[in-house]
Amino acid sequence: MISALIIVFREVIEAGLIVGIVLAATTGVPGRGRAVALGVGAGVLGACLVAAFAGEIANLFQGSGQELFNAAILLLAVAMLTWHNVWMASHGREMARELKAAGHQVKTGERTLAALSIVVGVAVLREGSEVVLFLYGIAAQGGTSAVAMVAGGGLGLVGGAVVSALMYFGLLKIPAGKLFQVTSGLITLLAAGMAAQAVIFLQNGGWLEFLTGTVWDSGWLIQDDSLAGRMLHTLIGYSQAPNGAQLVAYGATVAMILVLMRLVNAPKPA
Amino acid sequence: MKRLLLGLVMTAAYAVPPVWADEPVVVHLKNHKFSPSVIKVKANKPSMITLYNDDDGADEFDSSSLKVERVVPGHNKANIRIRALAPGKYPFMGEFHAATAQGVVIAE
Q1: Contact: B64, A224; criterion CB under 8 Å
Q2: DSSP bridge partners of B70
Q3: B52 touches chain A (CB under 8 A)
Q4: What is the model's pTM?
C-alpha cells in the first residue's frame, strides 16, 4: 500500500504542479476549466494507450522508441509553453488590466488556452502512463493486496492534488498586476527544464552524443530522489549532476524564450 | 614535424574505441529481483545493459544517478544505454517493486 501511495503521489505531484501553473497563468480566462479538464482527460486517455502499447513503442527505432517518444512530447510541450509566453509578452499587460477590472474576466486570454491545454495533456500523459502500468500490474495480481494498493493509490492521488492546489492558491496570492509576469517566469523555467529532460532521453536513445560529461554535482545539497529534488526537477528542471548538453539546452531555451518575448514586445515602428 | 603530427593524429584515430566495444551486460528481472544485481562496467566508457523482464507485469528501470528511466513491459526486453561513468557506485531500482528490485552498477 505504501509503495502504491508513494508512486501515485510522486507522479500526481509532477503533473499537478504543471496543472497548477497553467491554472494560475490563465486566472480569470473564461473557459479555462474546460480547457484544463480536456487536457487532463486527453492525457489520461493517452496514458492508457501508451501503457497498452508500451512494448510496441519501446521496440520502435531499434529499441529506442520510448526515449524518442518521450523527447518528442517534451519538445512539443516546450513549443507550446514558448508560444504561450511569447503571446503573453504582447498581451500580458492587457490581461492584467482586465484581471484588475471589475468582473475579473480575462477575455484576451482565451487564445492561449489551446496551447496550455496541450501542455496539461502532455504532463498527464507522461506521468499517467507509469501509474497505469503500475496499477495494472497490481490489479492483474488480484487478491487482498490489490485492495490495499487501490487505497494507497487513492491516497496518493489526493495527497498529490493537495500539494498542487497549495501551490496554485499560493500563486493566486500574487497581486493581479504581477501575476502574469510571475507565471511567465515560471513557464520559462518549466520549458527549459523540459528541454533539458528531452536531451537526457535523446542521449539515452543514442541520438545525441556530445557534452555528456557531468558538469557539477550538487547531490550534497539536494538529492534528485528526494521530494524537494523531484519537485524542483518538475518546476525548474533541477538535476543534481547535469551534463553539458543538458545545460546548453536549458540555457538555449531560456535565451530563446526571452529573445522572442523581447522581439514581439518591441515598440512598433511608426 | 608534419610527419610527427600526422603520426599523432593516426594514433589518436586508432586509439578511439568503438562506442559499444563490449557486449551488453545481460540482466534478468524475475520475481521482482535483478540478477545479477551487481553489474560491473568499465569506467569512462559507455556500456549497455540488456534487461529481460521475465515477470508478467511491467517495471521501470529507474536510476537518478545513471539518469535512466525506462519502462520494460512484462516478458519484454530493453537495451539500456549507460553513459561513460566516472569510477563509483550507481544504484538503480525497479521503481514499481522497489522493495525487492534493487541493484547497483559499479564503474571501475
Answers
A1: yes
A2: B61
A3: no
A4: 0.87
